Amino acid sequence: MLNRWENSIVLAPMSKGSNLPFRRLCCEFGATVTVSEMIFASSLAQGKRKDQALLRRSPLEKCFGVQLLTNRPEELSACLPIIEASGADFVDLNCGCPVTEMTERGMGAQLLDRLTRLEKLLEVLEKEAHIPFTVKLRAGYKAGHVNIQTTARMAQEHGACAIAVHGRTREQRYTGTADWNVVKQAVESVNIPVIGNGDILTWYEAQDRLNLSGATGLMIGRGALIKPWIFQELREKTDLDLTPQERIAIYLRLTNYMLEHFGDDAHGQRTVSSFLFWHFDLFNRYRYLPYDQYYEASLQHPLIQTRLNNIYDGPPLEVALAGYGKSFRQDMANLFVKCAAEKHPQVWLENELLPLAQKLMENYRRQAEEKAAEKALKEAQKQAQPSSSGLPFNEPIADSLPNS
Ligand SMILES: Cc1cc2nc3c(=O)[nH]c(=O)nc-3n(C[C@H](O)[C@H](O)[C@H](O)COP(=O)(O)O)c2cc1C
């Protein structure tokens, strides 16, 4: 299995994000390993259909893993045959989910603080799994409790074929920056492949973190949600400068894959529209970040954690794709579904998206004017207000004194 991980570019498991249509798109751009959305072992073991559906894979997924969330050895035991029968290449144990609802129930990142329980789960995987297994770890539970070396070794001793390491603690969730020295510590502690994860948005950040940590491969989460073509950039070590039209074509492709997967009847279309609505809030964070302009900045702070300028002006489609505002995103999502379902992308692009983009720009302009007017009014009111000395605010004191 080592050659699967050597120089691998893994699409991270992401609830909602890494559904089958999105994974298919990422594989087309060069993701070499994919992982399902997180599945609750309790409901998979009960045979719930919703969870069974998450086991499906696209033919393009050449190395596909199923991620389980549990803290109960018996649930894990019950799920293994189901996952194996589904044809997955590996099973992944989630030890990174920071969501309070899960950690309060002793699952996800809480396992980093409950090593006896983690060990019991690893024992089940060691004894009962007939396919390889991986473990997805964070640095530790909280600052001062970074125990990546211990957890990485535990995973190795129980036979994990690889580990993924996100260089943040549970306490950090997604704040601060991912610490790739933690990935390095894991690499130095074990002989199995270590997949480094956290804050990769450009090929040069990927190179930098790989060099620093010595990781076997990379796992990409939000970077893929922002630009699914990141896998091609990482493979080719290049910045792709895609036009808005090219990006729209990619989003349309995704829309079509979603309609194929979720169904193109009214119910399917509503599901796809709600997914796209969510996706546009990530797609709109895309900015072209060429190496020569951004490399230095990326060394100071990961670009994915850096707030980049909003785009209010410029080519309408560019502004539209960077657009914010819930109602605009919903309009965009509905339009994409309508267009993909009608299969007239070019006509739609010219007749519907452009006017929508122009309307958005008009809104921005109006908002900016309103803001400027509001600011001017406040300024005028301030000037008209008597100061604490009883004198007009900006008037030279001597000039306003009577008989001076
Ligand atoms: C929307 C979203 C959903 C996520 N869901 C999961 C999940 O189900 N299982 C998991 O192990 N990690 C999950 N993660 C964490 C990612 O797998 C990854 O570790 C994290 O985002 C850091 O990588 P990045 O900086 O490349 O995004 C999720 C992240 C995001 C943004």
What is this structure's SSE topology?
Blueprint: H1 2-5, E1 9-11, H2 20-28, E2 33-35, E3 39-40, H3 41-45, H4 49-53, E4 64-69, H5 73-86, E5 90-95, H6 100-103, H7 115-128, E6 133-140, H8 148-157, E7 162-169, H9 180-189, E8 194-197, H10 203-213, E9 217-220, H11 222-226, H12 230-236, H13 244-262, H14 266-283, H15 291-300, H16 316-321, H17 326-342, H18 345-384, H19 397-400
Parallel strand pairs: 1-2, 1-9, 2-4, 3-4, 4-5, 5-6, 6-7, 7-8, 8-9
Helix pairs in contact: 2-13, 5-7, 8-9, 10-12, 13-14, 13-17, 14-17, 17-18
The protein binds flavin mononucleotide.
Molecular structure report:
The protein has 404 residues and is an alpha/beta fold. It contains 19 helices and nine strands. It is globular, with a radius of gyration of 26 Å. Residues 387-404 have low confidence and may be disordered. The site of flavin mononucleotide (FMN) has 22 residues, from helix 11.
CATH superfamily of the largest domain: Aldolase class I
Could you name the CATH class of the largest domain?
A: Alpha Beta
Question: Helical percent range?
Answer: 40-55%
Order of helices and strands: HEHEEHHEHEHHEHEHEHEHHHHHHHHH
Number of domains: 2
What are the main properties of this structure?
404 residues, alpha/beta, TIM Barrel, disordered C terminus, binds flavin mononucleotide
